[in-house]
Amino acid sequence: MTDAPPDPRRWQMLPVVLSAIFMSLFDFFVVNVAAPSVRTELHATDVALELIVGGYAFAYASGLITGGRLGDLFGYRRLFVLGMGAFTVASVLCGVAASPGQLVAARLFQGFAAAAMVPQVLALITATFPGVERPKALSWFGVTVGVGSVAGQVLGGVLLDADLFGLGWRAIFLVNLPIGLVVIALASRWLPPAAAAKRPRLDPVGSVGVSLAVALVLVPLVLGRSEGWPVWTLVAPAVAVPVLIGTLAWERALHLRGGQPVIDPALFRNRHFSAGLAVNVAIMAFFGSFMFALTLVLQSGLRLSPLEAGLTFGPLGAAFAITSMLARGAVARYGARVITVGTLVSGTGLLTLLVEVSLSGASVSPLRMAVPMAVVGMGNGLIVPSLIGVVLTGVDPLRAGSAAGVLTTAQQFASALGVATLGELFFAVLGIRADRTGFLYALGWVLAVDLALVAVAAGLSTLLPTSGGGPRVTIPASRSGYEPELMTSDR
User: FRET pair for 235, CA 20 to 30 Å: which of 57, 229, 325, 335?
Assistant: First the structure.
């Protein structure tokens, strides 16, 4: 690593780059709060709502690893600024959308833009902060993940209730315009032009193959029920299997030729990595579907205003933020035991909420729901910021970048899968019984499946490294397979 002195602007830089994480997560979850308003104004169907939420996560996941490699090729500052600019434009397009189709298309664009800017955040932190300061900077990264995940619910409710300039739900997207412009101006001035010393090669076949395989599963899940499950919705998932097998074969051949596949086959021979990937998928599928279904219940079922629904999520957000700050020190000492405890805490919150909804029925109150929701937030605050670091402890440092890329990509795919799959379950159970009791009954089914996912994650977490001591691999500089030692700066 270069011996150049640390950039004196690094602490000024930190909130600028973390704004990308906050905005990307905010815009994933804020749509949950706006979903009933979007349905009413744009006459959006259930399918459209799932695509508006899940389509963003799918596009985001599809481009993450490629976005990281483009940053290595062209410089992290350049990709960050371009990605933030595209994200801002996409947000404006979302805000002026006149139909569900336009909004879905703009959300896909927004997801791809997020995939360009977000991978540069960890790269810039690792390249700019010296080793002694990096843990503190990364702890703020973890806090931002927690706060951004829930701020969409809380601040989204505030924006909808305020009805700025009579914009209604459109304000949740248009607010990104002034923020994006300020961030672009500050980033252009303060971010260092850091880039990887070793230039990577892109793997378009691998990127497209993985995305296509997932799309062949997700799209039928989203469209199948409304279309009456035509033949193509049954054929597409079957086609996904050979597409995925062919993609993995290509990745293996590329690896043997000395190339740089988006999925390193050697990773899956590591028990810790494979278990961590499965935990990742289970947790993010549960959390994405949990937030989606719960928001629909609070607004459409319990008839809360967007502000009231957002404030109901407030304790969850506060608990997530607090435990995510505490988790870093605990992981260093106890390893994956922290994640196991987190799954047990989240499971307790889910079970308590399920019992509350089942026993109270239509008389359930938002206040009584907020308590178990906070317990879920407490558990996820222990899990989400810690998971990648714990998994990477058992990974060869030379493959840590590739492993982090696969893990973070899997998180976003799992969120989209959770919304699509359990969203379909929610609407199928709800049927035409769109009253308070019907919404709560549909929520109960989603909570039961989410509880099963958390139980799977709890069991698999016992396969992760249990000791926090010894050599550790922290978050790598980028998501594309290049380590902090390879980072250079043009300063």
Answer: 57
